[in-house]
């Protein structure tokens, strides 16, 4: 696992990977800003409907705006990893292809080219699973909020499970021989991969790079395992 991440990190300065990363980062930021603006407006309107208006507050707009901004910031902590991974899946084929071209040319030559519709479908399914499981985990996280570390731990473990599967599939879909073929990584390997990326997503600035490191590391893990005697 550590070797796979070391190899992935070593390729982050590759011009081809940098171009894909910048393209993905810009798309992620645009989607995130759009969701943030929509979330702020929705929260502001909801607070006004709930009674935070000129009838009972001297400066209702300022109070609502502050509360809505805080809500968007808190939501952003959870949504960032979902949005970043969903956008990355649109460019996943390019990331994995860059890794395979450099390190696994034989596999690159036999890879199946995913169409945009298949990549978009995988991205939407992955985002749907992430939103659903994070919503299911939210009540447990709220109960553990008083511990100070329970809520972040719950979301980290849930997203480790999600990330492990999604990162594996980014590579596997290019090489899967048939629809019912078993996944290449064991459950423990997928969880370890997802956990490392989930932890990196919590680190400021590093979280911009974490999904790419995960995709590249997944490629190394799967191909090195396939080539192991």
UniProtKB/TrEMBL annotation:
The chain crosses the membrane at residues 20-43, 63-83, 135-162, 191-222. Keywords: Membrane, Transmembrane, Transmembrane helix. It comes from the Bacteria. It is found in: Membrane. InterPro entries: CysZ/EI24 (IPR059112). Signal peptide: none annotated. Its main location: membrane. This is EI24 domain-containing protein. It comes from Novosphingobium aquiterrae.
């Amino acid at each position: 696992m550590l070797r796979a991440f070391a190899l992935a990190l070593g390729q982050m300065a590759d011009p081809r990977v940098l171009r894909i990363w910048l393209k993905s980062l810009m798309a992620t930021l645009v989607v995130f800003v759009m969701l943030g603006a929509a979330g702020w407006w929705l929260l502001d309107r909801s607070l006004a409907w709930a009674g935070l208006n000129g009838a009972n507050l001297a400066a209702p707009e300022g109070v609502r705006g502050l509360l809505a901004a805080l809500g968007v910031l808190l939501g952003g902590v959870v949504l960032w990893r979902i949005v970043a991974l969903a956008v990355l899946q649109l460019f996943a084929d390019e990331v994995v292809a860059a890794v395979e071209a450099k390190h696994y040319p034989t596999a690159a030559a036999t890879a199946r080219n995913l169409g945009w519709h298949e990549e978009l479908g995988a991205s939407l399914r992955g985002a749907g699973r992430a939103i659903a499981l994070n919503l299911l985990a939210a009540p447990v996280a709220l109960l553990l909020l008083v511990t100070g570390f329970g809520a972040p731990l719950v979301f980290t473990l849930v997203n480790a499970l999600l990330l492990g599967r999604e990162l594996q599939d980014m590579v596997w879909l290019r090489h899967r021989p048939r629809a019912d073929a078993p996944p290449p990584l064991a459950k423990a390997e997928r969880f370890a991969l997802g956990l490392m990326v989930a932890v990196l997503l919590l680190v400021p600035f590093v979280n911009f790079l974490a999904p790419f490191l995960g995709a590249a590391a997944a490629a190394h893990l799967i191909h090195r395992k396939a080539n192991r005697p």
